[in-house]
Amino acid sequence: MKELTYAQAINEAMCEEMERDANVFMMGEDIAEYCGAFGVSRGMLEKFGKDRIMNTPIAEQSYVGAAIGAAMAGMRPIVELMFSDFMCVCFDELVNEAPKMRFMFGGKVKVPMVMRTAAGAGTGAAAQHSQSLEACLTHFPGLKVVIPSTPYDAKGLLKTAIRDDNPVMFLEQKTLYRTKGMIPEEEYTIPLGVADVKREGSDLSIITYGRMVQMSLQAADKLAEDGIHVEVVDLRSLLPLDRESIIRSVKKTHRALIVHEAVQFGGFGGEVAGQIADSEAFYYLDAPIRRLGALSCPIPFNPNLERETFPTVEKIITQVKSLL
Amino acid sequence: MSSTKKPSAEAVVPSKELMATLWRNMNLARCFEERVQWLFSKGLVHGTTHLGIGEEATGSGTIAALKPQDYVFGTHRGHGQAIAKGIDVNHMMAEILARSTGVCKGKGGSMHIADPDIHYFGADGILGASAVMCVGTALAIHKRKEQDRISVVFFGDGTSNEGATWEAMNLASIWQLPVLFVCVNNTYGMSTPIADVMRDTDISKRAYPFDMPSKSIDGNNVLEVYKTIAEARAYVSGGNGPMLVVENTYRISGHSKSDGNLYRTKEEIAAWKEKCPIKAFRKYLVENGIFTEVELDAAAQDASDTISAAEAYAKSCPEPSIDDLLSDVYA
Lengths: 324, 331
What we know:
heterodimer, A: alpha/beta, Rossmann fold, 5-stranded mixed sheet, B: alpha/beta, 5-stranded parallel sheet, two-stranded antiparallel sheet, 11 helices, 7 strands
């Protein structure tokens, strides 16, 4: 085992896949010498050269569209969008093109590409560089949507995403890039669509993903001091969704709190709540299904206001206690 | 300033066999679209369709100058492009009639006719998207160091205003990719004349900032189209980077089935009917003694019979099974 940061784990996944498969290459803004805005591609230019680590113009439609075309022609491109908010500039490519080509063209083409991007708040980047837009991506059949919460998951999930024959939206959490975790020396992959119980518990299930996993685990630690045993389910992939793991956990604990960083209203928590309510887990519930997400406002700059916009350990604890 | 880079103007001499192919493909395109129009009028076609009657020289002439291995991205007005690329008309008609044997299994329709098996990445309903994806297929060609292969994207005058089109030209240009941009300028974006949406309607000038050569030609003259594209293909496949060709033509048919032609006069349409590319090519072929009227009529009749057979085939095919609804969402 070795200790790597979340960013290093992502880097290692890409390097291993590029060494394994000559069709894999990377495009994005300032990913070569600058190594990307968050330093994820450090050392990759030296290792693979500028033909495979390609700086692009600041023109998201062009290189995301080019990734789709290259994928249709048999390559396996990885594109890095510097901030997930920039998806909005190339939404046509992500929504109308990548997920629809195969179906629309009678199953005769594949689009094996990965769009990696940095999502989430907590850096004082304000309203246009801090959003969590994953819910809308899950609304487009043909896409896969992955959000890793640890270095271990990030590496294993990204390797699978690169090998997947479909367009995968890989939403990295920008405040997790420097967090550390243990990674096996030997190669491993993690299948998409399999949730991970990050902490076992009997009193309530917190169903969450991304940055909120660590926060939920911290809340669970504190709650344990009061004798409250919370289970933390990390979805890891929203599309495909591991419905069975959610239902299994709720049937076990009889209570569900869904936590995400994205705006609560219209967020993915609504889908998770719906899945629970639609299933046999409904009959096991001893309390209403509760959601905890961001307030309904653009993300503010001021650090106190920014913190208050999102779930916190304290807010999670309060919600858990209110359901017991 | 226009680019100093130029394709070589080596004389391209079309063979008699090639001229027969052009004649056949133009007639197939015309017959196909007139048949589709008729089927629509009878209420036999679901959805909508965009016809390019009057634009047949562009698709036929362009694709005749390409090679089978070239990637082609067509437009939503692309029946003629698809036919020239070699799509089976039986399966194309089956697609229009939403049958399971359609080229897209009845799930794409007129707006998404495609056949990746013959490198035709088809019609896209969102303008500008094909241009950026075409740059991607060219990038794959470049990365795999494939010789004698290019990527071609057809787009309209309206799409030349899309940001994605400009981004595509920029990317193809900075990376010197083998992309041939083919603008089919039919002078209207749906109902809006290009002079209302462009300060300068010479679309070929849009290549200037990207240092790529461009040419503006008579898109109703199929031999001029063929010769220009043959030169352009030689230039692009020679590792010189992208090029733009603007083929100036006119859409005699309405924009789509809902078009009442309120934005143009009957006289204007009639004048362009006189400049019909099929009529013009017939005149050329007869006057130069290449084919006789009788030979041309026989070939045109054969095209018409082929389309009749395609219609009969399509009508005989079943609709897709509900059981297949969710197939091909994921690979």
